[in-house]
């Protein structure tokens, strides 16, 4: 398959079941809601070493938030429910509770309930106040700037993590520009996050390593500087490869995000140095979710 | 299916225990069976059809017409369905109510919504003393649900209240929120003496400055984030509380009762 001079490989991305949750952070203005959201989703690019994958889903209009203030919707993904709950609680405690004027609300009404403000309330040292409003419990925790308001729980649902595609370009600036264009379009899709810095990862990995202590190492088949010294997957004109990883609530959400992302890359086309779109997989043996690039773009 | 309607034929001198006439107890009963039920009337028992003309068949929607202030225990332990009372109601309206709705067009007696657990109760007139309170000797009053009173309420509203909302468009009598353990009482009108007497936790939300009390300490003026959410939850009611202009989030906060646990609060609208 070729779109605008860009070859779409006959391959697929392989993804895994994860647990996910969403929270809504509000503040006096969008600036401070975003600061808090960025802190809460920081150091959460990969479950390999961060414990979770997290990202900002979108900015919310005051009319969309429970308290009528500007807000930001964030999502956190982890391999298991226990790990997810732990990450949510520590991040909420250190990054939202501490952030000036912030408030924290559930972003998923259904699903398994996990603690959001339920345990943070103990920071109130007995001065905390519970309010049950329309069946939802909120905790009012006295803090130095006034009160921190946090909904007691949020929902945890089954989700999919690890959807991805690779952008192969003739130069590094061209690969980055294509990825930026893709991310801009993909951020318009609900229920997905792209957890890596700016949504883009330049250090895609393969399973295993020559070093016994490491479970993953650089994806040498896609490293352009190794073209002459490893079993490369790159043609001579490829000088840079970047990857976009997507976590989403459902397979369909990731499908949509990949479609708009790849389309945005293809819109730049071969004339802007984009040569191929590929994807990372493990032979289809590890992850139950397969995203076939050509089917998505058909 | 039309509403199961009980129209009062005569006003008995003695009080009537209306507790058998609730939706979940009448569900599936034939008209003749309902007519043959007996109600306690003072010292004697009286057949339902001696007291009421009965019409309709939908037991989930009961209407009591020509009601007056001696019909007690209307909607006792109501568990789903709706009861509409046209006229006044006696004491213990919605006692221990578990779910469903009750609406009274007139006034109600003492202990309305007493030990109520869930559901929605609307009183379009005035309510007597001990609204949403605990029965004498009991430690827990209203435990959930919402009570909306469009008129005034008597003394001891929310006595021993544990959870839920009492919304009062008019005035509240003395000892409003006394011995309250938690929950919210909102009063748009004036409040009487001894507001929040022996209150442990909970919120008294006031539109007007109450009488000063040595038992409550001023915590200053604040903008509280939970108030917009609370007011948003009132929007579904047919009430002044649903009016956007009634909402506020800037309050003077008083903590008390300091002679008790002192974790309660009186929030008074600023401006």
Automatic annotation (TrEMBL), chain A:
Residues 1-143 form the Formylmethanofuran: tetrahydromethanopterin formyltransferase Ftr N-terminal domain. Its main location: cytoplasm. Its EC number is 2.3.1.101. It comes from the Bacteria. Residues 146-296 form the Formylmethanofuran: tetrahydromethanopterin formyltransferase Ftr C-terminal domain. GO terms for biological process: formaldehyde catabolic process; one-carbon metabolic process. InterPro entries: ForMFR_H4MPT_ForTrfase, ForMFR_H4MPT_ForTrfase_C, ForMFR_H4MPT_ForTrfase_fd-like, ForMFR_H4MPT_ForTrfase_N. It catalyses: N-formylmethanofuran + 5,6,7,8-tetrahydromethanopterin + H(+) = N(5)-formyl-5,6,7,8-tetrahydromethanopterin + methanofuran. GO terms for molecular function: formylmethanofuran-tetrahydromethanopterin N-formyltransferase activity. GO terms for cellular component: cytoplasm. Keywords: Acyltransferase, Cytoplasm, One-carbon metabolism, Transferase. The keyword Transferase applies. Belongs to the FTR family. Homotetramer. Catalyzes the transfer of a formyl group from 5-formyl tetrahydromethanopterin (5-formyl-H(4)MPT) to methanofuran (MFR) to produce formylmethanofuran (formyl-MFR) and tetrahydromethanopterin (H(4)MPT). This is Formylmethanofuran--tetrahydromethanopterin formyltransferase. It comes from Methylobacter tundripaludum. The lineage of its organism: Bacteria, Pseudomonadati, Pseudomonadota, Gammaproteobacteria, Methylococcales.
From TrEMBL, chain B:
InterPro entries: Formylmethanofuran_DH_suC, Glu_synth_asu_C, Glu_synth_asu_C_sf. Transmembrane segments: none annotated. Gene3D superfamilies: Glutamate synthase, alpha subunit, C-terminal domain. GO terms for biological process: methanogenesis. Residues 82-212 form the Glutamate synthase alpha subunit C-terminal domain. It comes from the Bacteria. This is Formylmethanofuran dehydrogenase subunit C. It comes from Methylobacter tundripaludum.
